[in-house]
Amino acid sequence: MTATVEGSGSPVDAGGPKPIYGAPRANWPQFGTYLFILVPFVALIAAVPFAWGWGLGWVDVALAVFFYTFTCLGVTVGYHRYFTHGAFKAKRPVRVGLAIMGSMALQGPILHWVADHRRHHAFADRDGDPHSPWAFGTSPLALVKGFWHAHMGWVFDRKLTNAERFAPDMLADEDIARVDRQFGLWTAVTLLAPALLGGLLTWSWWGALTAFFWAGLVRVSFLHHVTWSVNSICHMIGNRPFKSRDKATNFWPLAVLSMGEAWHNLHHADPTCARHGVQRGQVDVSARLIWIFEKLGWVSEVRWPTPQRLAKLVK
Ligand SMILES: [Zn+2]
Ligand SMILES: [Zn+2]
């Protein structure tokens, strides 16, 4: 018998109800969570006065923009629209490539990310949602606490979403399970590749160090906060032109940096839709990349929005 993974639209074999949580996170991965979130964050703050000094050049900027775009699309097109929601079908090398690109954003191994996000949709802004800003109530103090929790507090929760319940389709795919196990390798690659390129392009150790700092640490941290802002800001502030059962919003100032993910109200109204920015002038770079992949024949069965469907979703 086939059913749908809650909230995601992805088909799986239903094996009866399973618990929400799986095995808790072990000590080393828990330590790694702190290390790779807090160290880049401190680097980001240190970067501000640093920027006006001596350790930043065009090579660093170009590498940072390149790795930001590459890994952000890995999350938005790969982890999110494809793996979590099944917005299109992809050929095997594209599937594995997207899993690796998403891993290089350092937002956790793919199985965790997908299981967490499917749980978010299954329980959006209700009990069981891993990161709702409304979890503590609606008083000003509860909302401050909720904002912190939705933005990054939830990441430190040692109770991990049960992938067997929320991502059985991914667990069953040996290629994806392998990329998941290789998360340490992709962590090293995403931090060392900018250093290597910076060193080669400037032919200096100093160039390697500044590229590691800007295109490695600062870039990772900046993308963390943009992604987390979709969880925090885009469930609190913005417009809600579409019918969704939760408090998801469209928040235009983040549209470009989030590569289209800030059109979050439409996304919750129609989770499997490949395009989130569906209205006039709503920039959605991720949807454009999916369109290019479709033209190249790399992906198929893309769930593009239709006027009839949108008419039903609009308030
Ligand atoms: Zn959401
Ligand atoms: Zn989603």
Automatic annotation (TrEMBL):
Q: Per the database record, which ranges form the Fatty acid desaturase domain?
A: 57-276
Tell me the keywords, alphabetical order: Fatty acid metabolism, Iron, Lipid metabolism, Membrane, Oxidoreductase, Transmembrane, Transmembrane helix
Q: State one molecular function term (GO).
A: oxidoreductase activity, acting on paired donors, with oxidation of a pair of donors resulting in the reduction of molecular oxygen to two molecules of water
Q: Report the main location listed first in the record.
A: membrane
- BP terms from Gene Ontology: fatty acid metabolic process
Q: Where are the transmembrane segments?
A: 34-55, 61-82, 94-114, 134-156, 183-206
The membrane topology term of the UniProt record is: Multi-pass membrane protein
The compartments listed are:
Membrane
Record's InterPro entries?
Acyl-CoA_DS, FA_desaturase_dom
- A single cellular component GO annotation: membrane
Family label? Belongs to the fatty acid desaturase type 2 family.
Q: Does the keyword Cell membrane apply?
A: no
Reply yes or no: does the keyword NAD apply.
no
The name this protein goes by in its record: Stearoyl-CoA desaturase (Delta-9 desaturase)
